[in-house]
Design a protein that fits this description.
With 408 residues, the chain is an alpha/beta fold. The chain is 33% helix and 21% strand. The termini are close together. The chain binds S-adenosylmethionine (SAM).
Length: 408
């Protein structure tokens, strides 16, 4: 049922985006949607009694008009002035993506634990009054060649991120955290030297929004594609990239809510053997006496190994593969830059308790929301592209209380 509804919804959307002009009259809309969604001629013409008066109406056309109205309320479709039954797209962002009006926001879908909003994060969070414990997000990168969902330029980046995050930071609980995954691979035009935008960004987040840097975590991605091609493979002046930075920031380092006991890892066999034999037998010092090992050290059993700040997660995983397949099956574009579930899950467990609120202003494929849902945290996520919200919904169909506003 869910798949059929989403198919019909995306067929309505595609019927408009397939037109070069983005303009379509209703008769052509019904025809195109019926063909794309595989609705038979008989079903497309079927009539049934509707409303109090029981008037006989075409059920299929009514449903298509319902989706048309949903798109209208999201500011994605508008009526062409003076033309009866003719509508057009307002903000096609690319061939496959439609962006909501910056000032409009509508519920996308929800579960018992969370809400996904189709809207621009700055306008949604500006109206929010709820204590946020953690933000895990990956804003658009300032790439020279924009991804399909677009991005601010490098020159606009710092001001843009501060503007987007300001209302989010205002709702952060004391000691709450923000984890920002940004790119290290932005180069000075025509040069193998990296942009210093990251440094400017961290300073601005401190100076303008009062955020303190807890760490620059390294997300090591062993499955990252080789690059930067021009500088590593052609000019040979750079090395291939294997990591992305994740800034971990807080508004109050003295009350920060992190707890590494929530993310302890299994001890290595070597460490277990050390405990077994009663700890270290050596009495040595290193680094001019700064670090000393005495006999008996590491003899006490502990709950687990404290993770290091290099987090190694490949970006392929079964959950993300399932999301991509489900989105494609429904005729929706799969997001091209999802973060690994394991990265989002690690940060959520390290930085929050169950029941606390986790948000992602730039939800994309809704990885952070998915991880929060699975870990029993409440969540709120915003995304400005309609198709990504529809695709993200496919992750939650089994979640308690799932309601899909865009396929109701
Ligand atoms: C790098 S992607 C996020 C990927 C995400 N972490 C995931 O795992 O799928 C950034 C997303 O931010 C969205 N976006 C850009 N500007 C936005 C805004 N003002 N409000 C909400 N979403 C926005 C883009 O459409 C894009 O999907």
């Amino acid at each position: 049922m869910e798949a059929t509804q989403l198919n019909l919804f995306s067929s309505v959307l595609h019927a408009y985006s397939a037109q070069t002009s983005g303009v379509l009259d209703n008769a052509a809309l019904y025809r195109n949607v019926a063909v794309a969604a595989g609705v038979s001629e008989a079903d497309a013409a079927a009539r049934a009694p509707v409303g109090k008066d029981g008037d006989m109406r075409n059920v299929f056309e009514r449903k298509v008009r319902w989706y048309q109205q949903t798109l209208k309320s999201a500011g994605i479709l508008e009526h062409v002035a003076g033309e009866r039954g003719v509508w057009q797209l307002t903000r096609p962002a690319s061939k496959d993506l439609n962006q909501i009006e910056p000032t409009v926001s509508v519920l996308g879908f929800s579960t018992d634990l969370g809400i996904a909003i189709l809207g621009s994060c700055d306008s949604v969070f500006a109206k929010l009054d709820a204590p946020i414990t953690l933000v895990v997000t990956s804003p658009p990168y300032p790439l020279a060649r924009a991804r399909s969902y677009g991005n601010p330029t490098e020159a606009q980046y710092v001001d843009w991120i501060c503007k987007m995050l300001e209302p989010v930071v205002r709702n952060l609980v004391p000691g709450g955290s923000i984890c920002l995954n940004v790119s290290n691979d932005i180069f000075m035009p025509g040069s193998p030297a990296r942009s210093l935008y990251r440094e400017r960004l961290v300073l601005a987040l401190h100076d303008r929004l009062g955020l303190h840097k807890m760490d620059e975590l390294i997300w090591r991605n062993p499955s990252k594609a080789p690059g930067p091609i021009r500088y590593a493979s052609i000019d040979r002046t750079q090395l291939n990239v294997e990591y992305e930075p994740v800034y971990w920031l807080t508004n109050d380092p003295y009350q920060v809510r992190s707890n590494n006991r929530r993310v302890l890892q299994e001890h290595t066999q070597r460490h277990l053997d050390l405990i077994q034999q009663g700890g270290e037998q050596r009495d040595v010092s290193f680094s001019d006496g700064a670090y000393r090992i005495k006999p008996g050290r590491f003899a006490n059993p502990t709950e687990g190994r404290i993770p290091r700040n290099v987090l190694s997660f490949g970006h392929r995983c079964p959950t993300q593969t399932a999301y991509k397949r489900a989105a494609k099956e429904r005729g929706l574009p799969a997001h091209g830059a999802p973060m690994p579930m394991k990265l989002a899950s690690f940060l959520i467990e390290f930085l929050t308790e169950p029941g606390e609120l986790v948000v992602d202003p730039f939800a994309g494929s809704f990885t952070t929301a998915d991880a929060a849902e699975r870990l029993g945290r409440r969540w709120l996520a915003t995304e400005c592209m309609l198709e990504y919200v529809c695709g993200g919904a496919t992750r939650f169909v089994q979640a308690p209380g799932f309601y899909n506003r865009l396929a109701a």
